[in-house]
């Protein structure tokens, strides 16, 4: 079946947005440019200003400074209901006394849209719930209700859909399923999605572009792989998954790499991965890049070795095992190992070395 979601999404631009509440700056000179039809995630810890940003885009807050442009139009002074925007919240607030189809068609009917029923059925088909159109919200599961809320927002064909932690109330399995579904729906309808979440895995699974927000500012923005592989700050490295951070002065530098002295050990880092080439630097290494050895590995070109250390914790989690290794002078190093047929290679208390390819 074909869907009549031919209206394209619009691009969104935030041009130097600042939002000050009495005694507190929630958003600080924010510049964002989101291309039409993209799935964009704003990711950050609680209180970093994500919801405030969405509210500014929706027109529910007025910026202290800066402009909001949707599809090139300056909407900074436009009333919320006149903006081509719809929001899906974590609490989906369906009308309990109305059927599902009535819930979805409600806004269209109120506006006197003629083919409201057809459009509502199309939107329900898109979220694969048309067969439950006559049920009441209380007869649906949490995930199904969230999909109805999505259909209700999409049916208005907003140029821009704002999603504020829409999957926050769902259990992990349903959340994962809905993440993939949201992604499918977005690519099918081609609208611009601006999704706010504090869950890094969710942001990386769904979005084309992720902006990591911290204290009212964007720390880094890019494709999920880029943010994960090349985080520019320690905050981004640790917020997007786990990272081992080793800090020390630069001992030597060549055209291709730098060597950092970490508690007397020399760690080599490719030059293009280092933010600085003089002074003190922090080296971030993902736990899954590390290998554990029960005997000291022979030194080899292009391999860093830390150790000896002692395994202080082993936690098994199905596909992988996490080892915490205390390395004197360096600290506790986290190692993720894929579980092969033979299971964990070392136990708590074992003496080990940790290595990785630069
Ligand atoms: P969460 O993930 O917990 O929802 P968030 O990143 O969405 O967090 P915001 O709700 O945008 O964060 O809030 C950003 C900061 O602005 C917070 O420190 C919050 O306390 C503050 N703030 C939000 N609204 C107001 C207000 N009306 N008056 C004063 N401070 C506010």
UniProtKB/TrEMBL annotation:
Q: Give the top-level enzyme category.
A: translocase
- GO CC annotations, alphabetized: ATP-binding cassette (ABC) transporter complex
Q: Which UniProt keywords apply?
A: ATP-binding, Cell membrane, Membrane, Nucleotide-binding, Translocase, Transport
NCBIfam families named in the record: potA
Which species does this protein come from?
A: Diaminobutyricimonas aerilata
- Catalysed reaction per UniProt? ATP + H2O + polyamine-[polyamine-binding protein]Side 1 = ADP + phosphate + polyamineSide 2 + [polyamine-binding protein]Side 1
In terms of InterPro entries, this protein maps to: AAA+_ATPase, ABC_SmlMolc_Importer, ABC_transporter-like_ATP-bd, ABC_transporter-like_CS, Mo/tungstate-bd_C_term_dom, P-loop_NTPase, PotA-like, Transp-assoc_OB_typ2
Q: Which gene encodes it?
A: potA
Q: Which family does it belong to?
A: Belongs to the ABC transporter superfamily. Spermidine/putrescine importer (TC 3.A.1.11.1) family.
| EC number annotated for this UniProt entry | 7.6.2.11
On subunit structure and binding partners, the annotation says:
The complex is composed of two ATP-binding proteins (PotA), two transmembrane proteins (PotB and PotC) and a solute-binding protein (PotD).
Give one GO term, molecular function aspect. ATP hydrolysis activity
Name it: Spermidine/putrescine import ATP-binding protein PotA
- Per the record's keyword annotation, is Translocase included, yes or no? yes
The residues covered by the ABC transporter domain are 12-240
Its function, per the record, reads: Part of the ABC transporter complex PotABCD involved in spermidine/putrescine import. Responsible for energy coupling to the transport system.
- Which Pfam families does the UniProt record give? ABC_tran, TOBE_2
